[in-house]
Amino acid sequence: MTHEQRIKATCAQVFSVSEKDVTVIERLMGGMSNFTYVIDIQATRYTFRIPGKNADKFVNRDVEKDHLKIIEPLNLNNETVYLNTEDGVKIARYLVGQPLHELNPHDYLQEAANVLKTIHDSGITSPHAYAPLKRLERYEYNVKAYNHTHHNRYNEYKETLLKHWDWLNSFPKTLTHGDAQVSNFVVTDNALKLMDWEFTGMNDPFYDIACFGNTNFDHAIALLPVYLEHVPNSQEFNRLYLWRTFQCLQWHNVALYKEFIGLSQDLSVDFYKVAQIYLDKAEDLLAKLK
């Protein structure tokens, strides 16, 4: 079944319409894990997410469903109309706007800081912790299933990270988005919005600031003083570098897994190369520690 066939069949069932009433307009680009389409049903637009191959190895859909409900009062996300926790298919109301990665993120630093503070200062708590080290171990297990032995560089950077872990893990935990990279922000006429709450959980709020530097770490460096409302000291910079290092190790494992299950060929993305780039980034980050 093609994606278009799957979309039409699912929407016909969810909305009680004919498949002829469902039009697939375009695929949104930006994420490497999911396929997200803009669709039209009787003059109303929605987004339709189809998770990528084996995405369930990294995301718990029951947890995602819980968080989509929890964060509703924050008014940061588009309305979820349907979420199948078994296959991860999600339908949401289409949000008219422009993804922040298509603009200059530095023009929206105050707005981005306000969005993150809305989450972090909300007082909303979740029963689900992000649990970074447990998550990293799970991701490592996924790649070890393919008889992969982690490179010495990976082990070296992880060992350095763990030397700082007690300190890094000592900060108070708040609700965090967990994937607050630039491509998940949408600039609308009314306000900046934040999509894709797949990795939400209780964590250090600095984790979200580090995420903002996913494609270009300069974005995170620029966001930090705006978020803090003061010039960061060396310890605050270290906290940011270490969380971004963790993220690089985490996504290194995800990229390796995608390589091992054949997604490099399926999606025409060299995920093995992506995995090595994340190690290069981790090396650069650790060199910045003071």
Helix/strand class: alpha+beta
The CATH class name of the largest domain reads Alpha Beta
What percent of residues are in strands? 15-25%
Structural domain tally? 2
Q: Could you give a short account of the major beta sheet?
A: 5 strands, antiparallel
How many strand units?
10
Relevant terms:
290 residues, alpha+beta, Phosphorylase Kinase, domain 1, Aminoglycoside 3'-phosphotransferase, Chain: A, domain 2, 2 domains, three-stranded antiparallel beta sheet, 11 helices, 10 strands, globular
Structural write-up:
- With 290 residues, the protein is of the alpha+beta class.
- Helix 3 crosses helix 8 (217-228), helix 4 (132-144) runs parallel beside helix 9 (234-260) and helix 9 packs antiparallel against helix 11.
- The model has no long low-confidence stretch (mean pLDDT 95).
- The relative contact order is 0.12.
- Strand 4 (80-83) and strand 5 (90-93) form a beta hairpin.
- It is globular.
- It contains eleven helices and ten strands.
- The strands form three sheets. It has a five-stranded antiparallel sheet. It has a three-stranded antiparallel sheet with strand order 6-8-9, covered by helices on one side.
- The N and C termini lie far apart (54 Å).
- It folds into two domains: 3-93, Phosphorylase Kinase, domain 1; 98-287, Aminoglycoside phosphotransferase (APH), C-terminal lobe (Aminoglycoside 3'-phosphotransferase, Chain: A, domain 2, Alpha-Beta Complex).
- Helices cover 45% and strands 16% of the residues.
- The protein has helices spanning 3-15, 61-70, 109-120, 132-144, 152-163, 165-168, 206-211, 217-228, 234-260, 263-267, 271-287, and strands at 22-28, 34-41, 44-51, 80-83, 90-93, 98-99, 174-176, 185-187, 192-194, 201-203.
